[in-house]
Write a structure and sequence with these properties.
Blueprint: E1 2-9, H1 13-28, E2 34-42, H2 46-56, E3 60-62, H3 65-69, E4 76-79, H4 86-95, E5 99-102
Parallel strand pairs: 1-2, 1-4, 2-3, 4-5
Length: about 100
């Protein structure tokens, strides 16, 4: 079974919502051909990212978007930044070859 490694960029309200969504996918969908693995969480305030790592089981916390985008293990990033920062982050993620989830 394939692991799908996720990076969450931004950990305010939406970052928490996306994280909880990833964690509960197996409750709604059985027999998926992949497992979700929370690989990285990135926040402007390092203590927020570290708390998210500890609470939600991310592999690591980062304070810089590019740290996450340079990680070859990450398959997809959730852009959970304020709306005005979506485009720049999404474009950088696409240039890095990542799948992007942004709403």
């Amino acid at each position: 079974m394939k692991d799908l490694h996720i990076g969450v960029i931004g950990f305010g309200f939406m970052g928490r919502a996306h994280t909880l969504g990833y964690q509960t996918i197996p409750l709604f969908y059985q027999d998926l051909p992949f497992r979700i693995h929370l690989r990285a969480v990135c926040a402007a305030h390092p203590e927020r990212a570290e708390a998210a790592r500890d609470r939600h089981g991310f592999s690591y916390a980062a304070g810089d978007l590019h740290t996450v985008l340079e990680d070859p293990e990450i398959d997809c990033v959730s852009i959970c930044l304020p709306t005005g920062l979506h485009a720049e982050a999404a474009e950088a993620a696409l240039r890095a070859g990542k799948h992007v989830y942004c709403d």
